[in-house]
Amino acid sequence: MLYACDNCHYLFLRTSEDTCPDCGKAMIRPATSEEQEEYKNRENENLWTEDSNSCRV
Q1: What does DSSP assign to residue 12?
Q2: Do residues 21 and 10 lie in contact, with contact meaning Cβ atoms separated by under 8 Å?
């Protein structure tokens, strides 16, 4: 199940912990349908590809 942290807004798949794996706070809850969609979209993005407008050094 997908969860969200109300403190840092991190989206994550919950393991057995009751705290956020990013900030450590216990302010986690099940993700809303909008947050689940955002998570799916981020998962499908490839952040390691070069785009044609990138700056080369």
Answers
A1: E
A2: yes
* Beta carbons of 15 and 27 less than 8 angstroms apart: no
Per-residue model confidence as pLDDT tens digits over 37-49: 999 998 888 767 6
Closest of 16, 19, 41 to residue 28, by C-alpha? 19
What backbone phi and psi angles, to 5 degrees, belong to 5?
Answer: -100, 125
Q: What angle do CA 28, 30, 34 make, to 5 degrees?
A: 115
Cα–Cα distance, 56 to 36 (Å, whole number) = 35
Does the predicted TM-score (pTM) go above 0.85? no
- If one counts every other C-beta atom within 10 angstroms of the C-beta of residue 11, the result is 17
20: closest CA among 38, 45, 37, 3?
A: 3
Q: Which residue has the tokens 């981020």?
A: 42
